[in-house]
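BUG-488 | component: ligand-complex export | severity: low

The export step for flavin-adenine dinucleotide jobs runs without errors, but we want the raw record kept on the ticket for reference. Input record follows.
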Amino acid sequence: MASNLVWFRSDLRAYDNPAFQAAMNSGSCVAVYCLAVNQWEMHGVSEHKRSLIVRQLFSLAEDLAELNVPLKVINCGTFSGVQSELAELCCQIGITKVFCNHEYELNERRLTQDVETSLQSVRVDLHTFHDQCAIEPGKILNQSGEMYQVYTSFKQRYYGYFDRLARPLANRPERQGETGIESDTTVLMDYSLDLEMSELWPAGEDEAHERLESFIEARVKAYKDVRDFPDVNGTSTLSPYLAIGALSTRQCMHAMISLNGGVLHSDQPGIQTWTNELIWREFYRHFLFAHSDLCMHKPFKKNTDDLPWSHDNERFNAWCEGRTGYPIVDAGMRQLNQTGWMHNRLRMVCAMFLTKHLMVDWRLGEQYFMARLVDGDFASNNGGWQWSASTGVDAAPYFRIFNPTRQSERFDKDGEFIRRYVGELSSLDARSIHDPSPQQREALGYLSPIVEHRGAVERTKALFSALGKQGSENAHANDNTQCGVASV
Ligand SMILES: Cc1cc2nc3c(=O)[nH]c(=O)nc-3n(C[C@H](O)[C@H](O)[C@H](O)COP(=O)(O)OP(=O)(O)OC[C@H]3O[C@@H](n4cnc5c(N)ncnc54)[C@H](O)[C@@H]3O)c2cc1C
């Protein structure tokens, strides 16, 4: 018999999982995952991410079986179904304690509270842990006891406090005795798994660790120099695994510490830059924890809601489909549509193009990314979109608007990335591919630019400027390390 239940959420791994470790330390343990497909619909979770979660659950079931822990995947529909199904399962198998890790989005936080209440009604205790950040949200605050609004200041504190505040890696749980309870993952059989995605993004903790190791061995030291070039395999591609919790940021940080002689702060530019990116991830999560209204489609800079954001379907659809007539934007969007992932440099270019050139509401872009990304993650996605739209915390100053053609010339110099995704242009040379002439466009069946760059950005700057002082306030405190200084 088992008395403990570990409830897996966005922490789909057996190792370095605080809730799972505590459940195993406390007695015999069963695991559960609550499938809430209707909630996925409401949150606009992409098919790619759903497929990765389902495949990761099969892999997790195998890892848990080695530890004699049965995994039950139950169909709950929505979050309200989760409360009742969990309580019922506890009663069925005689559970007295449930263990889970916190999630920081608003609905997820409410769910934790609701589950606690419904478990109390059947005399079951809920034990919660912080897992998603290496340092718990709410622990790194400024002198006024508030969350930092400038990434650089947060980062400095983060490095300073890491040794004291970061939880050590959780141990590998020991194999337990037989529970006499069967695993049940049959509800996952309803999912037809996309083979192409399985090859692009194989599931499993082993896969995540292999990616981490190969990145550390072969690429992290050059990261600072190559991370901005979409045609180079210069980044870790770990985001999908971090998003579903097949890997933790703590594990990544500890890998950096081992590489770096036992400390997090490094003088090696590649290691330092990569660690700083992980700290961006932490920053957005800490920020979300402190500002949960971000989950209600609110900009951080409230007055930016007064801008005349457009909802023009024609323009928005052209952007979604990679038909803007700006080759680098179209290549980025087609990469997203085809692979479920987009290079960070292009996420910034495409997001800025939608919001600053087309002036389309950033929330539509945010939603579209979520609906396509395999690594869709509320905090990072919202952070990235509000950064690009200049509506968010420590965002890009509104007057620094990427020129897509200059970005293309700089970061895809030979046009190789464009050639891969915008097949129409593959015959063009490295000079003209970034901005083909009208004759070339016509001959190759490629579109004219949807807007003219200079006119579009001047209009947008004027609109932001008219918002008054507040629009530019954060620009002065801004730290541009997320993307390097934006070139205009
Ligand atoms: C508009 C926009 C939307 C984005 N949406 C998401 C999203 O839904 N999910 C997501 O994980 N990331 C998102 N990002 C951040 C970033 O683009 C991806 O994390 C990164 O491209 C993932 O590739 P990688 O794993 O190879 O990253 P690496 O360069 O290897 O970086 C390592 C890890 O650091 C974190 N990281 C890196 N850059 C950032 C960043 N700018 N902000 C927050 N964390 C970062 C990620 O967890 C990443 O896996 C978004 C950025 C923008 C500009």
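Assignee comment: Attached the raw record above. The chain has three domains: 4-129, 132-172+205-290, 296-477.
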